[in-house]
Design a protein that fits this description.
This protein is α/β, with parallel strands linked by helices. It has a single domain, classed as Alkaline Phosphatase, subunit A, CATH 3.40.720. 20% of the residues lie in helices and 10% in strands. The chain has six helices and six strands. The protein has a six-stranded mixed beta sheet, covered by helices on one side. The termini are far apart.
């Protein structure tokens, strides 16, 4: 069964989903940047609005980890949980106008490189998504609603990185999927992988991302991703203490 490691600039979840993971004994952790010195990073953490987690033992027992760069130590220390949410510091989030630096792609590359060079590679699916829609350039209108949750919105970028991604026709061998996914597709994939059951929201109406993967194929050998900024850069980077969004 694959390990799931997701990088987002914002994440949606629910106490019910953490309950589903807990009920099956599936380990999970939410890596989040520090928002203010000597305070909780709740502003960056979707579980802040989930009372059973925010005011329960999981808020302080290791399920919530800050700063976000702790993921590097957990990978090297063989302590990466089965399901991880990884939220970058605002400076590395690729949010338009948030930073004058171009560190976002390198941040993603260094997290993937850390997993790729570890024992986790052959059992991991890394899902990279952004919360900013493509309206600056995207001419494709959203599909019609398929549920009572509002239906799919504007398209957002998504990358799936795994040794089990199906072979495509491109020169690099990657697959370009033409399936309509939503953020609920990520949840559905995790639910199906560990037989968790359903939340009954967009996970029930979204296509699973499993069609992008072939777990029966021999795992691909990992190739390091070149990046402008090193892992050391991020390990020594000072927190920006910037809010999630100022718009």
């Amino acid at each position: 069964m694959p390990r799931i490691c997701g990088r987002t600039t914002a994440a949606s979840t629910s106490s019910e989903f953490s309950d589903l993971l807990d009920a099956k004994g599936v380990s999970w952790k939410y890596y989040t940047p520090t928002w203010k010195p000597n305070t909780s990073s709740a502003l960056w953490n979707a579980f802040d609005v989930i009372a059973p987690v925010r005011y329960g033992p999981e808020w302080t027992d290791g399920h919530i980890s800050e700063p976000e760069k702790n993921i590097f130590n957990d990978i090297s220390g063989n302590a990466l949980p089965a399901v991880s949410w990884v939220i970058p510091d605002s400076a590395n989030s690729d949010h338009p106008g948030y930073s004058s630096k171009d560190t976002g792609p390198s941040w993603v590359a260094q997290v993937v490189n850390a997993i790729g060079s570890s024992s986790y590679w052959d059992s991991t699916v890394v899902i990279v998504v952004w919360d900013d829609w493509g309206g600056f350039y995207d001419p494709v209108a959203p599909p019609l609603p398929r549920d009572n949750q509002g239906g799919p919105g504007f398209r957002v970028p998504m990358l799936v990185i795994s040794p089990f991604v199906k072979t495509g026709s491109g020169s690099q061998g990657g697959l370009v999927s033409h399936t309509v996914y939503s953020f609920g597709s990520i949840i559905r994939f995790i639910e199906d992988n560990w037989n968790l059951g359903r939340l009954g929201t967009t996970d029930g109406t979204s296509a699973s991302m499993a069609d992008m993967l072939d777990p029966s194929q021999p795992p691909r050998t990992f190739t390091q991703i070149p990046s402008k900024y090193s892992r050391s850069y991020f390990l020594h980077q000072r927190p920006s203490y910037a809010p999630v969004d100022d718009e």
